């Protein structure tokens, strides 16, 4: 392939990728098809397979594009505490920028520069802190799984109820819980106000701190 053709291919691929991300926000992952993407950029669906051999290849490219902002300006020599908190928060924020962002990333197992950089940054921090390769790997994946699972729930809540802090959302959730309380769930009844105080930022940071404390405890045992 000559240089000009390669540059044209990369340029057209970037146009298709940006359009796919816009379409994701408009219709969600379930309705994001190669045909819908082709219609959005006035290209026949079969032509898209020249850039993305399958829908999974498209999703992998989208996952890589979504995660790229999470890796900005994280110093390679940062301490474990800083890396865990920064990567965790930035990864979550990156996923939240797109409708179904967590669904795009979850289960993709994309081997792409952005995804690899995310894992490599965490692994390096754990190894530098004294974890062996196995413990560093388990810790890295568990942290990424936590963020993904949290955002999956967070985005599912938004699709079902809307903005978590809105009065209407709070009232709807309260009604559903109040109806269930009559059936006898004493622990939930006791904790109901805490459950209904839906602040995803605080809940996420609590979980992140819990993971970090666990990592530190493990390190003391190494």
TrEMBL record:
One of its GO terms (molecular function) is DNA-binding transcription factor activity. Residues 33-52 bind DNA. It comes from the Bacteria. Keywords: DNA-binding, Repressor, Transcription, Transcription regulation. SUPFAM superfamilies: Homeodomain-like (SSF46689), Tetracyclin repressor-like, C-terminal domain (SSF48498). Residues 10-70 form the HTH tetR-type domain. One of its GO terms (biological process) is response to antibiotic. TetR is the repressor of the tetracycline resistance element; its N-terminal region forms a helix-turn-helix structure and binds DNA. Binding of tetracycline to TetR reduces the repressor affinity for the tetracycline resistance gene (tetA) promoter operator sites. This is TetR family transcriptional regulator. The lineage of its organism: Bacteria, Pseudomonadati, Pseudomonadota, Alphaproteobacteria, Hyphomicrobiales.
